[in-house]
Amino acid sequence: MRYGFILPGTDIWTAPEMAVEAEAAGWDGVFIPDSISIDTAGYPAGPNYDTWIVLALMAMRTERVTLGPMLAAISRRRPWKLARETMTLDHLSHGRFVLPVGLGAATDDAGFYKVGEEMSARGRAQLMDECLDILNGAWSSELFAHDGEQYHVQSMKLLPATIQRPRIPVWVVGAWPRQKSMQRVLNWDGIIPQKMGGGDNPMTPDDIRAIKSYVEANRQHSTPFDIIWEGETPGDDPERAAAMVQPWQDAGITWWMESRWTSNSPQEVLARIKQGPPAAI
Predict the structure, then answer these.
(1) Which of 20, 98, 267, 277 would suit a FRET pair with 179, their CA atoms being 20 to 30 Å apart?
(2) Residue 219: is it exposed, middle or buried by C-beta count within 10 angstroms (0-12/13-18/19+)?
(3) CB-based burial of residue 210 (10 Å sphere; 0-12 exposed, 13-18 middle, 19+ buried)?
């Protein structure tokens, strides 16, 4: 069981320092949003710098923690450029980079609906699947090609290979129990679960157990597989924090992500980081 911290913004000045503090406080990972321009209520206002540049600064300032976006909306990125950026982060971090991916908050992020990006869920899913296929080939350092509906890549090779083998771990948002979404998850290295319907039908530890059983029964790869869940725990009450996490750990999650999406105070975020992860009972 590992503990990550999701920073609520990508401030170029504070994110690297917060990553250093998180490493010192015993967190196992630090993650930042991948948004172009958030345009909705409920999210902290403030500067948003480029995700990949900020992650590079975080990689250079830390030695142990896992780093990544939470999560990357890769349907709006050129796969061959993204391959180069992620490979570089893998090298800068000496193999500590992971790539969580999803369709993106298209209706909330002006980097979708104000600039003419694909808005339909089906279209974004197709772009994401083809992008992942290209990334997998590009990271290998071997010749690869791709001929899809959205992207066409002639036989080419990108060097160097990623440090992590067989590839940079990819965590995919999976809508449980939607078959098509879960089939996609089985091809990669982790799931960020969402429950179909959401709202009045939230995810429960029993759902996590069902997901874990489904993956164990159907996944063909022998590489490690992570189940990621996020929440907010009180840093000033370790016993209560541990009790909140325990049911999810018992159900089978491998990462607890401490999230502070609605906090607009860097001081509050830093204070929670310094209090350390909610170690399970």
Answers:
(1) 98
(2) middle
(3) middle
The CATH number given to whatever domain includes residue 113 is: 3.20.20.30
Q: What mean pLDDT is reported for the chain?
A: 92
Q: What is the dihedral of CA 254, 215, 120, 263, to 10 degrees?
A: -10
> Residue 206 is encoded by which pair of tokens?
């029993």
Half-sphere exposure of 270 (CA within 13 A, CB side): 11
DSSP 8-class letter at 196: T
189 three-state secondary structure: coil
- Kindly report, residue by residue over 59-99, the tens digit of the pLDDT: 999 999 999 999 999 999 999 999 999 999 999 999 999 99
Distance CA 104, CA 173 (A): 10
- In the structure encoding, which two tokens stand for residue 42, read together? 């409920």
Q: Where are the alpha helices (DSSP H) in the chain?
A: 15-25, 51-61, 79-92, 110-113, 121-138, 179-186, 205-218, 238-251, 266-275
- Structure-token pair, residue 163: 């440090």
Please indicate, yes or no, if residue 280 is contained in any of the structural domains.
no
Asked whether residue 254 is assigned to any structural domain, the reply reads yes
Of 64, 69, 61, residue with least CA distance to 7: 69
Residue 260 lies in a domain: yes
Number of domains the chain is built from = 1
In a domain, 225, yes or no: yes
Domain of residue 191, residue span: 2-275
What's phi and psi for 218, nearest 5 deg? -120, -20
- Taking only the tens place, the pLDDT of each residue in 219-241 is 999 999 999 999 999 999 999 99
